[in-house]
Records
---
Amino acid sequence: MASQAIVLRLHSADQVTQAITIHAGPIEKILNELIREDMEENELPVLWGTGLRAMGRRLRRFFETAQSADQANEDEQLDDIDPRNRRDTNAHDAGEAISTLREGVRITRGTAAEAKLGVVGTTPRRPEDVLLTGQQVLPRIDDAASAPLLRAGFSFDPAPAKASLAAALPLLQAALLDVAREEKEAGVTLVNKHASLEAYDRVFAQVANLVSALLEAIGEYELARRVRPSLRRPGVTTAVEEELVPPGSA
């Protein structure tokens, strides 16, 4: 799905190119008539229409480039969903296992035994911190769980939580690497998107200003105003901006 930035630019490009399609002929005819008396004998009529239609094609070409860059960025963001879900699921499972091990050791063998796990404060929730903490706890759990019981009859079997932690950690580590890779790729597509939009906006301003000026020159004042570039929104016509924020409502 195209971003809002592309949708607004598409509507604006459509307005400008439609104005060119409809009015290129009349612009050429009227302007050549206006300057006819000022032309030198060896000068040919100006091909206003040909130039305008070429500018319209140039606008479309730059828009298609920006649209492709925008779609690439949108697709890349969708690719991030699965790695992030795997990261969050395994971080939760590992965090729960760490909490279970800490609590079991503390209740049955005391805080000194829990301290052997090397965890200070609350069990972390940030995935990267969960991974580091889990890698620290896993090789220490057997020693901590072998400390003397605080009271006869107390019992805690660390094996299930230890197995859960051992299973979650490599999956979490792999998911974190995938997320990092996807973020890097998304960053590249985002830079390309911004560069493509900026290039398009420059071309749009050139074409829309030219079309607006020529429409005004032949007396199409309202249409000239509508296709004029917005002063506040790059790549957008005045008409499209007014659809978003009607005059007097800002």
---
Amino acid sequence: MMHAALTTAVLIAVVLASASCGDAAEPAVRSAPAAPAPSTLTATAPREHPRLAPRAARAVEARRLPEDPIAGARSTEASRERRAKGERNRRLVYDRDRMPAHDALIEQIGAARARYDRARNEAALTAARAAMPAQLEKIQASVTKLDPWGTDSGLLADYAALQAALTASYPEAKLATLRGEPSALPKAQADFDQRLHAMRKWLEEAKRAKAKGEGKEDKPQGALEASRR
């Protein structure tokens, strides 16, 4: 009986030893590290230096700045003067290229005026006035041919004024002189001549006018380089 108890004790010891070895051989299980909690901070983009800001943004900012009213008025006036100068030169060049037509028109107007000047009495003046509408119609046809759109020549207003004078004021002044008012016709003639003189002066300037870009190819290379400096 004692022998059986000893055998049982040995068996229990063996079983306990085996269990202890199995626990030691089993690999330890390590838990994975926990993921970091999401950050609650918001990333802030770096501010850009004003000088390095996009050009469009700088332009918008510049428009917000208060303007100098005096400088603004000067700039507007300078721009207006440049446009007026350019338009004047455009008309001069247009008339320069139509010089023969202007010469013919001025000759027609002079011939119509001469019919009034040659009238020695009221009957001759009446006949000259009766023939005038046909002459003025030809003059106007020449003006229309010269400038079909009525927007390019610098002498359109002058032609209209001379035609109006030949229609009314000039023959009326002639009639007043025939009836004993000697100063009437000389004044009308002076006004007519003053208008013609201004027209001829314009045409003389037109002869020297140059369109934008004209004449550059005729300059020597040195002059061209000097003009660019």
